[in-house]
Amino acid sequence: MSVAEREHAGGAVGVRRRRLDAAEKVTGRASYAADAFYRRLLHARPVPSLYAHARIVSIDVSAALAVPGVQAVLTAADLAIVGGSGRKAEPLAAEEVVFAGQPVALVVAETEAAAEDGTELVVVDYEPLPAVVDLELAILPGAPLSRVAGSDAEADVAMHGEAGAGEEDGEGEALSGNVLDVTAYAQGDLDATFAECAAVAEGRFRTSWVHQSYLEPQVAVAWPEGDGGVGVRSSTQTTFWVRADIARIYGLPLSKVRVEAATLGGGFGGKFAIIEPLVVGAALSLGRPVRLAFTRSEDFAAATPAPGIVVDLKVGARADGTLAALEARVLADGGAFADSSPVGFAGGKVGGAYSFEAWRVRTYAVRTNRVGAGAYRAPLATPTAFAIESLVDELAQRLGLDPIELRLRNVPAAGDPRVDGILWQATGMRETLEAIRGHPLWERRHGLPEHEGIGFAAGLFPGGKMGASAVCRLDPDGGLTILSGYVDMTGTDTGVAAIAAEIVGAPLESVRVVSGDTNEAPQAGVSGGSMVTYCLGNAVALAARDTRQQVLDYASHQLEVDPSDLEIVDGVVRVVGVPQRELSLATIGARLTGFGSTHPPVEGHGTAVPADLAPSAAAAIVHVRVDPDTGRVELLDYVAAQDCGRALNPALVEGQMHGGAVQSIGYALYEELVHDEDGQLLTGSFLNYAIPRIDAVPEIETLVVEVPAPYGPLGARGIGESAIVPGCPAIANAIAAATGVRLHELPMTPARVWRALSATG
Fold it and tell me: DSSP readout, 143-160?
């Protein structure tokens, strides 16, 4: 049954419905991390480093302490850190600052204004060190080190010859100590396979650092709790991970750390315990609640944006279009810290949505004096897709093949190897390509006016999986309460509510979803990686089935029939074929929770981890017009297709596709965190960090494809990540179609497009 047919048929699943939290968000009633009131609350403001790299000689806090209302000025020595490593265990720089904007002290005051005044009076004496910013220079032997504290002066050159999956031997290579890791993958006789190819395309691709641009900056509040414990409320994508981090850093038992998630004002991979360790240290030190809310400029400078990469890529295809050989060298800028960096994903994603006969891939994780890198929706899949999809498009042109047809010929089968040695699972890529190939926009590509072009690209995110648990409780009014520990980032609560309603047989409007704190909620993973619907959804499905069975067992006793002869429809248990014999869920809920009940209340439990991943395939067609005099790229049409497994709520699916498309447009044309040669951020606000405005985004048409995931709840897949992947390379391919010039650097700004056009005469 198609999405449209299910919408007419009614039911909880496959029907467009507004999000459960829609009303409270649009009316301003949602409570975000900065909204809650705390008695005796103190406000914190960070003192940022003025240098990208320097030794801290001294910190003079005396003038700041004299400001009325300032209660303390904390430095690294004041935080009771006992464990952990990386950035989370260094919330304040101790001996050495490693990026511009890194907090070196924290002013805590009765008001935010007093704390801000105090920061202006903290005097830090620095000994400047060379800033390591250029990614390609950073890896060379003899390059200045991005971090010198604790380094061996003789170890500025490292020999990296690590072998990855399938590599027969390592390649000893002299590199600087800024290279933290080299990951290598290889299979087959690459040189011989390239020699057999009918067409080869290659190029060097550069992508920018990109901020997640969530509406709500980083916010966290912490307060002491009885007997040495601490509570935390923050804008986070994962409460249980924050709890584990805090416990490890401050040497606390898990039972002494309680974390609750506020309504999340956007995350996209950027909210994973960035400032929580700092406010916890302040609260434990001062014995009062402390709140820190980053300003927008602080968030740009000191959060965890997505890293930039440099990719040297070469791809070969046989005459029939079969992709046969791939060689890649990837430099991935991890910024100042190795922890929480996604740069290790780059090598595995550089092969895109394809399999090859032979390959050689080397990925270099490099530490620089930029802020620490973090995840951003489909981490590194979009920038690597920009590279591979550009070259696949070139190969199609050289071989005289339709670009979609070439991709259809290279859809990986289940069990085919990826370039990182992991085997592909079954995907809906073929169905997605078939759904979009006949679109009228694609058919128009050969009859366009001058300076216009239509481009295509495919994308795929392999997805992730974690264990999840959930409770499904029947309430006295017949409603269902779903209890989980997950943070709703994209309407996932509405999706899992539909799963529970569908399985139990309850009206969707009678289901509520509650995300508890870490002391009361079932164990949960992270909200990210397209894992919430896929993982939590499975746990909710099991809990709902448990609840349904308990309801049927009770009703069968009351109605004196076998449970198999009962059904639940619209919140009413009835005998199949005899609808007048019935019990409502409200009646059952009231009976089982009242005084003197002879039966236990109904509460279903579910714990699950999917048996395998569920990749989500996506594709995009983009129509552009390029002004040859200015280099400006105007988007005229955008068509997105994506396999969602099963559309639990088509409105939410399309919303994810729209959001991913807009963010992919940002990657392609606008967004870039620019640092100068001294490591200073030049695009640290929305005045100079460009994101797509509504008047620059065309109408986005969506094609929802449903290829059920074998292990997904009711066949659903996670869909958040793949939506962002194909749009950026499709825009690049459209620009190439319009101009005959291929861009190799993101973002493709008017200046870069104009220079590329000018270079060709």
Answer: PPPS--TT--TT-SEEE-
Residue 294's contacts (CB-CB under 8 Å, 6 or more residues apart) are: 217, 218, 219, 275, 302, 303
Average pLDDT, the chain: 94
Q: How confident is the model at residue 154 (pLDDT cuts 50, 70, 90)?
A: very low
Helices 381-399, 727-739: crossing angle, 10 deg rounding: 40
Check: CB of residue 374 under 8 Å from CB of residue 304: yes
pLDDT tens digits, residue range 739-749? Answer: 999 999 999 99
pLDDT at 1: 54
Q: Tell me how many degrees the CA angle 56-57-60 measures, rounded to the nearest 5.
A: 95
- The share of the chain scoring above pLDDT 90, in percent, equals 92
Of 278, 334, 314, 349, the closest CA to residue 193 belongs to 314
Cα–Cα dist 308/331, whole Å: 9
Q: Kindly report, residue by residue over 579-621, the tens digit of the pLDDT.
A: 889 999 999 999 999 888 889 999 999 999 999 999 999 999 9
- The alpha-carbon radius of gyration of the chain (Å, integer) is 27
Angstrom distance (rounded) from CA 191 to CA 289: 63
What six digits make up the tokens of 616?
Answer: 């989500």
Q: Do residues 19 and 494 touch, judged by C-beta distance below 8 A? A: yes
Q: What is the pLDDT of residue 594?
A: 80
DSSP string, 459-528: EEE------EEEEEEE-TTS-EEEEES---SSSHHHHHHHHHHHHHT--GGGEEEEE--TTTSPP---S-
Rounded alpha-carbon distances, angstroms, from residue 253 to 196, 229, 249, 257: 61, 9, 11, 7
For 306, the token pair is 């997505």
747 preceded by a cis bond (ω within 30 of 0):
yes
pLDDT for residue 152 is more than 80: no
Cα distances (angstroms) measured from residue 697 to each of 456, 613, 634, 691: 17, 33, 9, 11
Interacting residues of 428 by C-beta distance below 8 A, sequence separation 6+: 616, 617, 643, 645, 705, 706, 707
pLDDT score of 575 more than 90: yes
Which residues are within 8 A (CB) of 598 and not within 5 positions of it... i.e. 6 or more apart?
A: none
385: buried, middle or exposed (CB in 10 Å: 19+, 13-18, 0-12)? Answer: buried
332, 364 contact by CB (below 8 A): yes
Short-list 251, 199, 248, 386, CA closest to 306: 386
- Cβ(43)–Cβ(108) below 8 Å: yes
Measured between its terminal Cα atoms, the distance across the chain in Å is 54
Cα distance between residue 385 and residue 404, in whole Å: 15
Q: Distance (Å, rounded) from C-alpha 426 to C-alpha 242?
A: 34
Label residues 390-410 b or e (16+ Cβ within 10 Å = b). bbbbbbbbeeebebbebbbeb
How far apart, in whole angstroms, are the C-alpha atoms of residue 101 and residue 110? 24
DSSP H/E element including 203: strand 199-206
Measured over the CA atoms of residue 392, residue 396, residue 397 and residue 399, the dihedral's sign is positive
DSSP 213: -
**CA dihedral of residues 711, 712, 715, 721 (deg, nearest 10):** -130
Nearest-CA neighbor of 343 among 373, 369, 386, 388?
373
Asked whether the predicted pLDDT for residue 174 surpasses 50, the reply is yes
The mean pLDDT value for 644-664 works out to 97
The helix/strand/coil state of 390 is helix
Give me the phi and psi of 283, to 5 degrees please.
Answer: -65, -40
pTM (global) more than 0.90: yes
Token code pair at residue 305 = 């944006």
